[in-house]
Design brief:
The protein has 14 helices and 12 strands. With 344 residues, it is of the alpha/beta class. It folds into 2 domains: 186 residues, Isopropylmalate Dehydrogenase; 150 residues, Isopropylmalate Dehydrogenase. Helix 3 links the parallel strand 3 and strand 4. It is globular and about 60 Å long.
């Protein structure tokens, strides 16, 4: 059982969640969390063969989740407050979007689900509803009591698609949604050591890698050029690497970010740790966009997501224009992680 939160209702999230859940219905029971009536209407417009059966959250609490077989999808109803117009945000629906995350968290804790897969939401809608919200990653950490989490995106580069055992490119972030001018101050030896520890732990326990190899980027151009272009590599990153290595973590660097993403380095790595959002993710998204997966490391459960946003412009143009490839990849990654981590 996978919990699929359908995200911002005015965006492409509900469509790609329905399409992907239906396409993977023989591999997983993907339970949709969202407005059941809206999802049923949308499903009929996408493909009349897609049948959606609605359940209330209270019914699930009382009797658990039934299995109806692969001829229909389950939607646990989280009603919206306002009518949905594709492509047009409405802050009245912000609390309902957030409620789908709360329900997924409840279901994971109660054992209804083995993992959470999230469609994209619009942060501004939730903030406009009067709730301070910075993103899935931070919210799930806060509400699961997790002190620190790590954002990692992964995907198979386009040029290797179809190749036997094509390696995944994985890029984790030392900082996430911060203004660039705040990044240097946010880096610390202890913080980087905790980040490396989480990456190492989850690559072992959720990905089945016995001895993960992590390459670490510098912060500054040329990894600081021996201090001439900045001292963060000398004062912060190198000591964190030394501490990680002393703890048995195979972390190497710091490498210049403009050279580490070469095959000769990547073939020796299971993950690259970038210092900030736009240092590592442009490379990952260029190589894998539309097939990439956003994974939150450090949580006490498995959470995957798509590598893109709500695409309001596409949603406004009507059904059939959104690509569900990243949602399919997110489901497949969740299933692979479940198989590699039977104790979760």
């Amino acid at each position: 059982m996978l919990a699929l939160t359908v995200g911002e209702p005015a965006g492409i999230g509900p469509e790609i969640a329905l399409r992907a859940a239906w396409q993977r219905r023989h591999e997983a029971n993907c339970v949709l969390l969202g407005d059941a009536a809206y999802l049923a209407m949308l499903a009929h417009d996408i493909e009349p063969a897609i049948r959606v059966s609605a359940l209330s959250s209270q019914a699930v609490r009382n009797a658990g989740l039934p299995y109806f077989g692969p001829d229909r999808l389950i939607a646990i109803d989280v009603p919206l407050a306002a009518h949905v117009v594709a492509g047009q945000l409405d802050h009245l629906n912000g609390r309902s979007v957030l409620a789908t995350l709360d329900l997924a968290l409840e279901g994971l804790k109660a054992g209804w689900f083995s993992a959470m897969v999230t469609a994209p939401l619009q942060k501004s809608t939730i903030n406009d509803a009067g709730i301070a919200f910075t993103g899935h990653t931070e919210y799930l950490a806060l509400h699961s009591g997790t002190e620190q989490v790590v954002m990692m995106l992964a995907g198979v580069p386009a040029q290797t698609l179809g190749a036997a055992a094509a390696p995944a490119l994985r890029v984790a972030l030392a900082t996430t949604h911060l203004p660039l001018q705040q990044v240097a101050a946010a880096l610390s030896v202890d913080g980087l050591l905790r980040t490396l520890t989480i990456i190492d732990h989850d690559l072992k326990t959720k990905f089945g890698l016995a001895a993960p190899r992590i390459l670490v980027c510098g912060l500054n151009p040329h990894a600081g050029e021996n201090g001439y272009l900045g001292r963060e590599e000398i004062d912060v990153i190198a000591p964190a690497l030394a501490a990680a290595q002393a703890a048995g973590i195979d972390a190497r660097g710091p490498y210049p970010a403009d050279t580490v993403f070469q095959p000769k380095y990547l073939q020796e790595a299971d993950c690259v740790l970038a210092m900030y959002h736009d240092q590592g993710l442009p490379v990952l998204k260029y190589a894998t966009f539309g097939r990439g997966v956003n994974i939150t490391l450090g949580l006490p459960f498995i959470r995957t997501s798509v590598d893109h946003g709500t695409a309001l412009d596409l949603a406004a143009q009507g059904l059939g224009r959104a690509d569900s490839g990243s949602m399919l990849a997110a489901i497949d990654s969740a299933l692979a992680m479940i198989a590699a981590s039977p104790t979760l």
